[in-house]
Amino acid sequence: MAQTTADLAHIPAAEAPATEHHVGWWQVFVRFLRRDKVGAAAFVVFGFFVFLAIFGPMITSSSKVTDLTQIYDPPSRDHLLGTDYAGHDIFTQIVRGTRSVMVVGALAAAMSTMVAMTFGALAALLGGRVDSVILLLTDVVLTIPYIVLLGVLATFVKLSSPVFLAFIIAAVAWPTLLRAVRAQVLSLKEREYVEAARVLDLGTSHILFREVLPNMTSYIIINFVIAMTNAIYGQIILYFFGLVPLSGDNWGLMIQLGYTKGAIFFNDSLWYILMPIVAIALLQLSLVMIARSLEEIFNPRLREG
Amino acid sequence: MAAIAQERPATARFGAWGALRGLWSHFLVRRIAKAIFTIYFVSSLIFFMVRLLPGSPVDVYINTLMSQYGYTYDVAADQARSIFSVSADKPLALQYVDYLKNVARGDLGQSVLSPGVPVTEIIFKYLWWTIFSVGLGLLIAFTTGVVCGMIMAYRRNTAIDNIFSVAASLFHSVPSYLFAILVVVFFGVRLDWLPIANMRGSLSSGQQTELSFAFVEDALYHAALPILTYALTGLGAWMLLMKSSTIATLDEDFVTAARARGLTERRIAIRYVGRNAILPLFTQLTVAIGFVVGGAFLVEPIFQYQGIGYTLFKAIQSRDYPLLQGIFLLITISVVVANMVADLLYTRLDPRIRTSGRSD
Fold first, then answer.
1. From first to last of its 305 residues, what are the pLDDT tens digits of chain A?
2. Nearest by CB to A241, which of B313, B325, B336?
3. Do the Cβ atoms of B332 and A284 come within 8 Å?
4. Phi-psi region of B120 (alpha: psi -120 to 50; beta: other; left: phi over 0)
5. Which chain A residues have a beta carbon less than 8 Å from that of B166?
6. Rounded CA gap, A220 and A215, in Å?
7. I want to staple A276 with a disulfide (CB 3.0 to 4.6 A). Which of A47, A251, B102, B196 is the partner?
8. How many CB contacts within 8 angstroms connect chain A with chain B?
């Protein structure tokens, strides 16, 4: 943050005691996590899911053995989390499903963050007609209930690849983020270093990419994490509606199958329907807590003491 | 508008009133224009999705008729026209104009699964149940949330505040559909406390739609679980919002002034703090309406509550495109109208909005 400011206009803030500034984010991060137990736990849980996403499909076998004598078994030594409607192991499915949930979530979050950042910042910087048009479109999309829009859009396209799935989710997820980015840029716009850049006539793209966006990194990272939680819910919804081809492994697919196979009406099927929900809840909770911790790390004013 | 008023200081009072009125209508006009644009945008979006995407529903439908029933293209296109209210043989621009005309007249085509039944008829059969359950759920969540939020703000940092805060964050973070699944799985199946099988549908079989105590009781019985879900999952956000809003209002000068004047704490809480603290919540109400309607779309199928969300779920699963389009359009219209009403209500409640509109 201090760099771009420093080489353009020598604002006192940039000359703050060097020692303060040379403490990298990483050190702040580690120091912070030592005090923030919840945040640390969230990072550990999230790290665990990342581990599952990367190595899960390697350490488990993809072959599903249908065993009709073991339908809806409770957890046992053979099946850590019990079995599903056809005697498949639930634990394996949870582990294997992690990757697609995380990949689609991250991809969709990246796409919507990108759109929101570019157009939100442009709207705020250019103002006038551009701002009005972008804001109008945002408002229109924001008015339509998210879930309905997602469901209806998805019926018209074949969601066969993860990229496409992420694209559809991102297509409905950008407006909230765009408004947040726009508001943030509007306030940054009034800062001295942006004004200095404008006086120096450095052009919109320079102001946007060299002055404004670098100063929003923390804000964008936090919003990315939040966007990811929404994207994960989004794909669960798509699976739940049966709009995604029912193949492969995914937690949403497990809920969908649980629902359509009548699992929520069978007493014994508790484990099958519950486990993906627990997995989703854990992942989402860790993401929300990470967002909260990051906010405190990046914004020292929120920290106490 | 303001400039004209300034030029005529003689009629300042009248002019200012006129300017204000002009602004008010201006705001109203702008608001309505935006609402109409939104509806137009969604209708067009639907049209282009149906017509322009490769393998569009109309083409698929025509091809199916031709290959399975041996229809000629003309006959098939004719059939498609009555179902989708789109004529596949005309140029696209003309189709678009025709389509918009039909939408404006309220002709949304017919259901593919039950040909001959207009989409609007199906929609109006189910819509009321959703409005009833969603509206009641929202109302319960809003009022309870406002009361609890004020209690939290007044009893800051006490045990009750902490308990409420944790509960609010918890309810707020659980999506309504997961909550619904948990209710069914735990209370319905595992513990067997709720007769979920009996509670399905919007009315018991044999119950007539009439204005009687039995009817209202039956309707409430079937809607109880969806309403509970909307109320509980919505409650948390209102509590937290009202708490922070009340805390902010408590610091205002007029509250201090009211205290100095020796007004009773009860009067201050209701007429001074409450009335002002609730204002920002109305802007959130517009967001919440859309959110709950979206949620109904997932909650209703889980409880098998036969509202519009359930119907949409079925339409999506069976790819009944005309019905799906109709419901999508109708949900958009109802959310747009609800938003507009909430916005206008807000400007009535808080006159500051009307004057601040001048700046842009």
1. 444 444 444 444 444 444 445 567 777 777 777 777 778 888 888 888 888 888 877 777 766 667 667 767 777 777 767 777 666 777 888 888 888 888 989 999 999 998 998 888 888 888 888 888 898 888 888 888 878 888 888 877 777 788 888 888 898 888 888 888 888 888 887 888 888 888 888 777 788 788 787 778 888 888 888 889 889 888 888 888 777 776 777 888 888 877 777 655 666 777 777 888 888 888 888 888 888 888 777 766 655 54
2. B313
3. no
4. alpha
5. none
6. 9
7. A251
8. 102
* Contact at CB, B313 and A280, closer than 8 angstroms: no
* Model ipTM over 0.85: no
C-beta atoms of B294 and A148 within 8 A? yes
How long is chain B? 360
| Contact (Cβ atoms closer than 8 angstroms) between residue B137 and residue B226 | yes
| Binary contact (A259, B302; C-beta < 8 A) | yes
Q: What are the tokens at B135? A: 């509206």
Are B294 and A146 inside 8 Å of each other by CB? yes
Q: Do A71 and A257 meet the contact criterion of CB atoms below 8 Å apart?
A: no
Indicate the residue type of A295.
E
Please report residues of A whose CB lies closer than 8 A to that of B293: 145, 148
Q: At what angle do helices B12-52 and B92-105 cross, to 10 degrees?
A: 120
Query: What residues in B contact A155, CB-CB < 8 Å?
Result: 316, 319, 321, 324
Question: What is the amino acid identity at position B346?
Answer: Y
CA distance B200 to B225: 10
